[in-house]
């Protein structure tokens, strides 16, 4: 479905919403922003925090919050923008919240929905993420904060204006929009906001390590100081106060900065994995590629396990693979008539590294006797699997008819 189109100088309202939740915190946050076109000014913006809600519920509450902000405004054309596929496209499930949203929308007969990627919903996303970190909502009344939201706004790249039969972007035909933009460069503001967000989250999560690196050891207990001293050679803080990780390397001190990686706090890890897994330059490429993309620039403990869990829970990856190709009818349940005629094979990945460097467990099971063989391995290449099968199964029991 193409995005809605608007006239070059059409007066209308656009709302954007977002929701987020953290299982560990047993709560979620949501936000809503009301924009006025064609100037793209922020009329109203707010966020809220609520206990015991899921991500989908937070997204619905974000939509309801937008409708609350619209309650005292004139009923005209309305465009609703969000990155939730459930709310925008499906509108099913969560019956009570869905019914509340539909009831409220009846007072806006001329409304349209627009589903978009998260990259274009940065204004609402930043507002919801801040509320989730604080575990409390806020109403935006400060003009500087409104200007920051306008800086992050990318909705004008999606909503298209009609001009003499040809479609052009709103930003190309709206002259007054520049007047409401901050005078400083937009990139500098975005960079400052990102650095401040990362620095604040790092200070909350790695308070002891950062204090030790800055020399504030008097604030630490002896146990904390001793623990920090063991890993201090791997971490540094830069001139901006950001915590960096330096992996073990044989490079000289001059080249050490080339391998520095930003330490990502837990509250921002999901955002980072979403960006690299869903990137416009070819996302949805599985665990390995997503992991290596992130690992090249960022670091946190348990990075691979986090990526593995995130990709495994990706709904788009599961639903976007298409229908499987049918290569032929199933032979039915295979039944062995003697030992090692038919064997099953599986593996357990991402185990703690052993002193021999093994991180995975390769398993064979005889379907006739139930006999199990386990072999620790360091990789899952075809050569490794073939060599271990020959050593553990073929040389001992002969060739199997099926695996």
Describe this structure in words.
With 403 residues, this protein is of the alpha/beta class. Among the domains are: 146 residues, Ribonuclease H-like superfamily/Ribonuclease H (Nucleotidyltransferase, domain 5, 2-Layer Sandwich); 55 residues, Ribonuclease H-like superfamily/Ribonuclease H (Nucleotidyltransferase, domain 5, 2-Layer Sandwich), CATH 3.30.420.10. The protein has 15 helices and 16 strands. A six-stranded mixed beta sheet has the order 6-5-2-3-4-7. Strands 10-11-12-13 form a four-stranded mixed beta sheet, with no helix packed on it. The protein has a three-stranded mixed beta sheet with strand order 1-8-9. Strand 8 and strand 9 form a beta hairpin. The longest helix has 20 residues.
Task: Outline the fold blueprint.
Layout: E1 5-6, E2 12-22, E3 27-37, E4 41-51, H1 55-69, E5 78-82, H2 85-90, H3 95-105, E6 111-115, H4 122-134, E7 138-139, H5 143-152, E8 160-163, E9 166-169, H6 170-173, H7 186-205, H8 207-213, H9 222-231, E10 235-237, E11 243-245, H10 253-256, E12 261-263, H11 266-277, H12 286-295, E13 298-299, H13 303-312, H14 315-319, E14 343-348, E15 360-366, E16 372-377, H15 382-397
Parallel strand pairs: 1-8, 2-5, 5-6, 12-13
Antiparallel strand pairs: 2-3, 3-4, 4-7, 8-9, 10-11, 11-12, 14-15, 15-16
GO molecular function, one term: RNA-DNA hybrid ribonuclease activity
Pfam family, one: RVT_3
Keywords: Nucleotidyltransferase, RNA-directed DNA polymerase, Transferase
